[in-house]
Design brief:
Largest sheet: none
Order of helices and strands: HHHHHHH
Number of strands: 0
Number of helices: 7
Radius of gyration: 16 Å
Distance between the termini: 38 Å
Shape: globular
Structural class: mainly alpha
């Protein structure tokens, strides 16, 4: 968690493509919660992660609220993309979920988190076009980054022979 928070506050928060696109990659920590964690632990870790980012960026509670919301919905999102008969403990990833379901899971989690973050950040809600652009394009950039990391981290066990 500490590494992702440092990556976020020292490097990623400085990225602002076209004034709309900011990757919020610290969400990766929440996306990868394993299914054996208690709901309380998930909410606590989500809150602490978001609060740590808030502390270093001066955003009072925005990341904490968004990360806690993402942590609250994480178990339901995992179940949405797994078959009903799977009961074993998993860490969400390409190897445990499959490539397509993992991509869908990451996309929905990122969209949920970023929607909450940018809507809270934009209060009072005035320019819906700008808010929507920030949500969509930041979601896409974060999704692509998470997908790249997720696919490179979860290499399949089979090796191809040439």
């Amino acid at each position: 968690m500490a590494g992702l928070v440092l990556l976020q506050v020292l490097f990623l928060n400085r990225i602002s493509l076209f004034g709309y696109v900011t990757p919020l990659f610290y969400l990766w920590f929440i996306v990868r919660f394993d299914s054996s964690m208690s709901r309380y632990s998930m909410l606590l870790w989500g809150f602490v992660t978001g609060l740590a980012v808030d502390f270093f960026t001066g955003t009072p509670g925005l990341n904490a609220a968004s990360a806690t919301l993402a942590a609250m919905f994480q178990p339901a999102m995992v179940k949405l993309f797994l078959s009903k008969d799977r009961r074993e403990v998993i860490i969400p990833g390409r190897a445990s979920m499959g490539a397509g379901p993992f991509a869908g899971y990451i996309f929905l989690m990122t969209m949920l988190h970023h929607s909450a973050y940018f809507l809270l950040r934009s209060i009072p809600l005035e320019d819906w076009v700008v808010i929507t652009a920030k949500i969509v394009f930041s979601t896409l950039l974060t999704f692509i980054a998470m997908l790249a990391v997720g696919y490179s981290a979860d290499k399949p066990n089979q090796r191809r022979s040439i």
